[in-house]
């Protein structure tokens, strides 16, 4: 066994050592495999912890000997699951918490503003309804504290 240009030489120049491409971006992983004389077969999988476009796993594993031209199976993260943000404007915080929890989201009250809407009613949300957010994300809301009567200090 010897090494020639980063490739394992086992007396048979058609065999190469499989490089470690886990946690590389897909384009870089494919480039490194090609440089070693290998090809890539890419599939995707959702992953809550790994950014979209990053290699999660590979077969054969790094360091194994493979025939030149072999297709290495790469599983690439398609990122965390996305959900559509519902409209919670006009609802109470308790209603919003329930509605958002059904979709894997949570609510955080960012502020209370004076408003003509009844106190405790959500008057603004971020991200806006209908957009996609990562499962587990927080939806920020601004809640009405009602409109101060003349003479109130608010």
Keywords:
single chain; 154 residues; mainly beta; 3-stranded mixed sheet; 12 strands
Structural class: mainly beta
Which stretches are poorly predicted, pLDDT < 50 over at least 5 residues?
none
- Please give the largest β-sheet: 3 strands, mixed
Helix count equals 2
SSE arrangement:
Elements: E1 2-4, E2 7-9, E3 15-17, H1 26-35, E4 39-45, E5 55-59, E6 65-67, E7 71-77, E8 82-84, H2 93-101, E9 106-113, E10 122-126, E11 132-134, E12 138-144
Parallel strand pairs: 4-7, 9-12
Antiparallel strand pairs: 1-2, 3-6, 5-7, 8-11, 10-12
Give a verbal description of the structure:
- The protein has 154 residues and is mainly β.
- The chain has two helices and twelve strands; from the N terminus they run E-E-E-H-E-E-E-E-E-H-E-E-E-E.
- It has a three-stranded mixed beta sheet with strand order 4-7-5, covered by helices on one side. It has a three-stranded mixed beta sheet with strand order 9-12-10.
Quick synopsis:
This protein has about 150 residues and is mainly beta. Helices cover about 10% and strands about 35% of the residues.
